[in-house]
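Please decode residue identities from the backbone states below.
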């Protein structure tokens, strides 16, 4: 499914495609200042912590051994991260960045790890998001918000947006502190 955010540990970098990862004061695309008005997207710290602890090997495979410090070279998704960083938070540009098959496979492996290891934490996050109640944000709004999330969260976020259920999209939009 989707992740709930990155952590606020340092240098403005957030690595974490479908769940949270390390780095990131601003949240958003790894190494960028994209995010929610300069605030972190840390709304599910137990999920983020679980993923960081349980799926470090997969995160390193996707984003490189130095991902936690903001160095995304050497991972299967390094070209994708470089492309998204060059977009300066422009969602149209970010959506034009494509993942290689190797990156997509890596992210799928990472997502499976997160889903298997952190299901309890994920469900708590989802429940809190759904408890936020109905709002005015549509799945189209969420789709634009997904482009502002850490690269490792984007595919899961887009999957929810593509489901076209506005109630769920609004809840995730709120949980991700999109603006």
């Amino acid at each position: 499914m989707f992740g709930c955010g990155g952590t606020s540990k340092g240098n403005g970098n957030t690595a974490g495609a479908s769940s949270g990862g390390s780095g990131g004061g601003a949240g958003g695309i790894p190494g960028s200042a994209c995010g929610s008005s300069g605030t972190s997207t840390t709304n599910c710290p137990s999920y983020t912590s679980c993923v960081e602890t349980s799926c470090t090997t997969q995160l390193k495979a996707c984003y490189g051994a130095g991902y936690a410090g903001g160095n995304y070279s050497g991972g299967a998704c390094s070209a994708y991260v470089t492309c998204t960083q060059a977009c300066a938070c422009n969602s149209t540009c970010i959506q034009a960045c494509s993942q290689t098959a190797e990156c997509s496979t890596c992210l799928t492996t990472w997502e499976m790890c997160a889903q298997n290891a952190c299901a309890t934490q994920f469900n708590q996050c989802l429940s809190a998001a759904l408890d936020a109640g109905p709002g005015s944000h549509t799945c189209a709004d969420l789709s634009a918000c997904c482009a502002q999330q850490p690269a490792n969260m984007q595919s899961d976020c887009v999957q929810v947006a593509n489901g076209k259920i506005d109630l769920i999209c609004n809840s995730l939009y709120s949980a991700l502190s999109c603006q």
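Observation: Residues 45-175 form one domain.
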